Amino acid sequence: MVFCFASGTFNMRQCADRIHIAKDFWFTYNKSMTLAKKITQILTEKNQTLSLAESCTGGLLAHWLTNIPGSSKFLKAGIVAYANETKEKFLRVPRATLEKHGAVSLPTIKHMAQGARSLFKTDFSIAISGIAGPSGSSKEKPLGLTFIAVATKKKIHAARFIFKGSRLSVKKQAATKALELLKNLLDETR
Predict the structure, then answer these.
(1) pTM for this one?
(2) Which CATH class is domain 12-188?
């Protein structure tokens, strides 16, 4: 429930903005939790495991998945690899890839996904890297640019997205899209 009180320079537009933010939060959260519950069910039934490599989402995806009872049966580990040094050291992203393409790129996200799957010895991994803002963007890499990859033992599915909104909104959209990509992949292999 959102309450708006008129005082000082507060106006109806600010009230409407608060209502929109609250509605957006609950819609995204409910959609994400529905996907997380389905993923929990599928991975648990198949006795398969998942690992995570998050950058711009800062552990949000891990947070959502661990809100689901039973997630410990499939979620082995996650790493928040925010700094390039962490991507390089733990996820084995080659320095040359980071220097040539940057942290927010298709080649980097593929290495992150494969690195997490190898490091934690899981059946699947998800990697997310992007520019959540409000700074860090450029003409070539706009605000909201996000790469997401899902790695399996056989291949890596990776995609590029541009999400709109605030920093938190971009993070939520990226984490939700990552769940959607994994769910679609799991549905294909059922």
Answers:
(1) 0.85
(2) alpha beta
Per-residue tokens: 12: 């109806």
The encoded tokens of residue 16 equal 């409407």
Q: Which amino acid is at 42?
A: I
Looking at residues 30-39, what average pLDDT do you find? 86
3-class DSSP assignment, residue 124: strand
Which tokens hold the place of 37? 């519950």
pLDDT digit string (tens) for 52-73? 999 999 999 999 999 999 999 9
- Fill in the amino acid letter for 30: N
- DSSP helix, strand, coil percent of the chain (3-state; round to 5): 50, 15, 30
CA distance 190 to 188: 6
Domain definitions of the chain by residue range: 12-188
CA distance 190 to 186: 6
